Amino acid sequence: MAAKKNVVGGIKLDYTNMMSDAVGAKDGLTANQLKSGEKQAAGAFASVSAQRKAGKLPFMDLPYTMSAGPIEKYAAGARRKFENLVVLGIGGSALGMTALQTALNPAHYNLLDASKRRAPRLFVEDNVDPERIAAMLDLLDPKKTLFNVITKSGGTAETMSALMIARDMIVKKLGKSALKEHLVATTDIKQGNLRAIVDREGLSSFVVPDGVGGRFSVLTAVGLLPAAIVGIDIRGLLSGAAAMDKRCSSGSISSNPALAGAVLHFLMDTAKGKNIQVMMPYANALGGVADWFAQLWAESLGKKHSTDGRTVCAGQTPVKAIGATDQHSQLQLYMEGPADKAVTFMRVEKFRRTVKIPKVYADMPGLAYLAGRGMDELLNAEQKATELALAAARRPNCSIILPEINAGSVGQLLYMLEIQTAYAGALYGVNAFDQPGVESGKVSTYALMGRPGYEKQRAEIEKAAKAMKRRVV
Ligand code: PA5
Questions:
Q1: From residue 303, how far is each of 75, 93, 312, 316 by CA, in Å?
Q2: Mutate to test the pocket of ligand 1, among 435, 439, 443, 445 (most ligand atoms within 8 A of CB)
Q3: pLDDT tens, position by position, 101-144
Q4: Ligand 1 pocket member 299 (CB < 6 A)
Q5: Cα 133 to Cα 256: distance, rounded to the nearest angstrom
Q6: What DSSP string describes 243-256?
Q7: Measured between alpha carbons, how far apart are the two ends of the chain, in Å?
Q8: Cα of 164 to ligand 1 centre, how many Å?
Q9: 186 C-beta closer than 6 A to ligand 1
Q10: Are strands 204-207 and 12-14 parallel, antiparallel or unpaired?
Q11: 59, 87, 93, 127: residue to mutate for ligand 1 pocket, most atoms within 8 A of CB
Q12: Cα separation of 341 and 275, whole Å?
């Protein structure tokens, strides 16, 4: 697929309303606080750059190391053959793909006429909710369906149980020989149960590169393979990410937007008590990015121990809101509730499409002001109004501004937020690349479900449950 012209002008970060001159010194950063933050930011930049140089952060090199060709080749065949693509994965093995799909394919994509879509419908099954899985099985004709099972570890119970169900359906309805055509795996190159299954069944497979964690894997085959199958320009994503990498090559917050985002939120949390970050895109298309970011920020920074062994219980809680919808749901709390939040708006300068409000009810002054205006103008006015109202209420906020939404700008945005998270990890002094809390949840599930090797954990859980006085009304 030829790369479209889509590395548009850069994404901007406007942090005017995080400063004390906009929201007061109690809630906003003074020039002096920002100055000392700049020194910390320079240290975080140096630490991340050194880790990258030592080969410890391969996700940062993906814009150059990922080769689009083999993915596009497989995707072109799959697009021709299948009406449905079902992604089986969870967490970092699902959220990136969903963010890409939501941002870059039309809303209601699955409902479009096949001739307009020119690619399979997409279903992302990222839970083991039996009703949802049963509904998917009712809906899909296995003959017309490709399953892409994605798990880096190759053992996650949610994903592997879904795979077992899909496999069973394919074998029962189409025969064992159909597995090769209807199943494609994305996993570690050598380890895990899924790799063993790939070898045993002779499945097509793609690799999650060594050292790239789930939540940093959207620009590997984890995100790019399903994205390419549903017609997304993956070269545009990679070149957008490369353009952002170039912009983030200095240790100064005045030129590196990811570093600025990291230090601003770090200071908001640690110096101003804003331990919640609300990400509020004013574009439904960016709602998936807000969900993806929530995992990235939470799982990377939410750590009990610092890298030097202190108990820190660090992290800023990410919350998703959608503008303008959540102005009528959550905004009241953000304006007048606890002053513990910093809001990050996302704003799009030029929408891909707009709809004009017709000139009707011109005799009604309460409506006439809307007539003839674009919905894009209304949405952006609402964003501006909310930003100003929050600032006037001394609630700090910043805006990520995208010139437009396309593969290039989304590649820039995702990459910027990934390295912002890496810098933030260095600022907090935590390891942003492990997830001991998630792993312990996985272990408890294995234990409760009776996986061999987890007998001790099961006995401990049962003992603790017995000792607990249950209080149920
Ligand atoms: O970011 C992470 O590492 C996690 O959220 C994982 O993506 C998630 O737990 C799923 O793991 P796996 O891809 O091994 O199935």
A1: 38, 21, 7, 10
A2: 435
A3: 999 999 999 999 988 888 999 999 999 999 999 999 999 999 99
A4: yes
A5: 43
A6: HHHHHT-SS-TTT-
A7: 59
A8: 18
A9: no
A10: unpaired
A11: 93
A12: 6
Q: What are phi and psi of 187, to 5 degrees?
A: -160, -175
- CB of 323 within 6 A of ligand 1: the answer is no
- For residue 291, the CA-to-ligand 1 centroid distance in Å is 15
What pLDDT was estimated at residue 8?
Answer: 52
Give the pairing of strands 317-320 and 311-314. unpaired
CATH architecture entry for 5-53+238-428? 3-Layer(aba) Sandwich (3.40)
Residue from 152, 158, 186 whose mutation best tests the ligand 1 pocket (most atoms within 8 A of CB): 152
φ, ψ of residue 409 to 5 degrees: the values are -70, -35
Q: Which residues of the chain fall below pLDDT 50?
A: 1-3, 6-7
Distance 151 CA to ligand 1 centre (A): 7
Residue 423 structure tokens: 């810098």
User: Is residue 299 among the annotated active site residues?
Assistant: yes
What distance in Å separates the CA atoms of residue 448 and residue 455, rounded to the nearest whole number?
A: 9
User: pTM value?
Assistant: 0.95
- Is the CB of 126 inside a 6 Å radius of any atom of ligand 1? no
Domain layout of the chain by residue ranges: 5-53+238-428, 61-232
Residues contacting residue 200 through CB under 8 Å, at least 6 positions apart:
none
**Contact assessment for residue 238 and residue 219, using Cβ atoms and an 8 Å cutoff:** yes
Task: Name the active-site residue from 125, 299, 387, 418.
Answer: 299
Q: Do domains 5-53+238-428 and 61-232 have the same CATH topology?
A: yes
**Structure token digits, residue 173:** 């309805």
Distance CA 86, CA 166 (A): 10
Q: Is 421 in the pocket of ligand 1 (CB under 6 A)?
A: no
For 6, 104, 220, 228, the CA distances from 352, given in Å and listed in that order, are 12, 10, 27, 20
Cβ atoms of 125 and 87 within 8 Å: the answer is yes
- Helix or strand or coil: residue 342? strand
Active-site choice (143, 305, 384, 442):
442
52: which 2 tokens? 């990258």
Which of the following CATH numbers is that of domain 61-232: 3.40.1000.20, 3.40.140.10, 3.40.50.10490, 3.40.50.1820?
3.40.50.10490
442 is catalytic: yes
